[in-house]
Design brief:
Elements: E1 5-14, E2 17-25, H1 26-29, E3 35-36, H2 54-67, E4 93-96, E5 102-105, E6 113-117, E7 123-127, H3 129-140, E8 150-156, H4 160-170, H5 179-193, H6 200-217, E9 227-228, E10 240-241, H7 242-249, H8 266-282, H9 284-288, H10 297-313, H11 320-334, H12 346-350, H13 356-368, H14 373-380
Parallel strand pairs: 3-7, 4-8, 9-10
Antiparallel strand pairs: 1-2, 1-6, 2-8, 4-7, 5-6
């Protein structure tokens, strides 16, 4: 059970917002009963923080461990330990409490206040999780001295919406989180809190992000469990980066039938889901083979550009069966077996020596060439392709 903690702090006011500067020992900050990370969960599509970059945290751990070994000052006072700036981390860790803070002013003249944290637990890290993780690594390794290491802390009192916005603002410049995470936050701010995107392009991006997140979290979707945020180690060869998949379908929402920002997303979602189910049906072995290009950028970029070309030529919304007919015609006419999608197969051979974008277009052109004009006409009128 969490225990109350009383801190002396100094209020700071910026643009009408008040936050509080204090210090908290590392041994306290690493206790997850008190301080947590609202990490983005790909299964629930909730949370907003990126995963810990263990390499970055380990660098901080080594920095703290090496610097903590103070040396004697031989020039002034042999008995006085030399001040060691090598283990100083002066930047404040930012922790938000979503419940109202209990604050008491300590004196009429001074600015100091006393903050009692009890019913307010837990606090959520907005900034500084890697610094604290570095300290945790040392503590877990048995370094008792680091337990009392004091971190400067800025305590805020935002609601979840404001907390997410602060994280996005703090990480929009130098040390940026994964592009997909920023896109997820932008989408959540619009979907949950009604934030209006400032440009038409941002509106399209939010629609694409929401659809990608839905594909990743729908157990009936071919992309279920196969889309991860960038900036972290992908967990399997068949997983890809969210921002890349979003980019591959964005053209569908910036022109043509799905470009209306007021259009409901149910139809485009079902259509794209059916398209990828058809791909699984036409190339079943390739879709299930570890390392296959189908679910890698060299597969899904040109396949989604092929989908855009289909939409430019077909007036109706194709069903899964329509997609199966089209893709089967392409497969048979071009002799594209499942092996064509292997890392050394036909598709890979088409792009040797070309940049990614040029390679994607070459593959998309090649796939499109597998449909005859007669086949396109028959599909347009929903006559089965033979």
């Amino acid at each position: 059970m969490t225990k109350p903690l009383t801190l002396t702090a100094y209020p700071v006011k910026q643009e009408g917002v008040v936050f509080y500067l204090t210090s908290i020992k590392a041994g306290n900050l690493v206790d997850e009963d008190y301080y947590r990370i609202d990490r983005w969960n790909p299964a629930t599509q909730e949370g907003y923080q990126r995963e810990i970059n263990q390499t970055h945290a380990h660098r901080i751990s080594r920095y703290l461990n090496k610097g903590h070994e103070a040396t004697g000052d031989t020039t002034l006072d042999r008995d006085k330990p030399k001040a060691n700036a090598n283990n100083v981390l002066p930047a404040a860790v930012v922790i938000n409490f979503r419940r109202p803070l209990e604050i008491r002013k300590l004196s009429e003249k001074g600015k100091e206040v006393e903050i009692t944290l009890d019913a307010q637990w837990p606090g959520y890290f907005i900034d500084g999780q890697h610094r604290v993780e570095g300290a945790r690594e040392l503590i877990d390794a048995g370094n008792d001295e680091i337990v009392d290491y004091e971190f400067p802390v800025a305590i805020t009192n935002f609601n979840l919406e404001e907390e997410m916005m602060q994280f996005r603002n703090l990480n929009s410049t130098a040390n940026r989180p994964a592009r997909g995470l920023n896109q997820s936050i932008a989408y959540a701010l619009q979907a949950q809190y009604g934030h209006v995107p400032s440009t038409w392009a941002e509106t399209a991006q939010n629609r694409v992000t929401g659809l990608t997140m839905r594909l990743a979290s729908d157990p009936q979707s071919p992309w279920y469990g196969r889309i991860a945020l960038g900036g972290i180690r992908k967990r399997a060869m068949r997983s890809t980066v969210q921002a890349q998949f979003s980019e591959s379908i964005q053209i569908l929402f910036t022109r043509g039938r799905y470009s209306d920002p007021n259009q409901r997303m149910d139809i485009p979602y079902q259509t794209i889901k059916d398209y990828w189910k058809a791909i699984e049906e036409v190339w079943p072995t390739a879709a299930e083979t570890e390392g296959s290009l189908v679910f890698r950028p060299l597969g899904f970029f040109p396949l989604n550009r092929l989908l855009d070309r289909i939409f430019n030529n077909v007036t109706l919304n194709p069903t899964k069966e329509d997609f199966v007919e089209m893709l089967t015609a392409i497969r048979d006419r071009l002799s594209l077996s499942d092996d064509a999608w292997s890392p050394t197969g036909t598709i890979y051979g088409l792009v040797q020596g070309y940049s990614n974008n040029k390679g994607f277009m070459i593959v998309a052109d090649y796939l499109w060439s597998g449909l005859t004009d007669e086949a396109k006409t028959k599909i347009r009128t929903k006559i089965p392709v033979k």
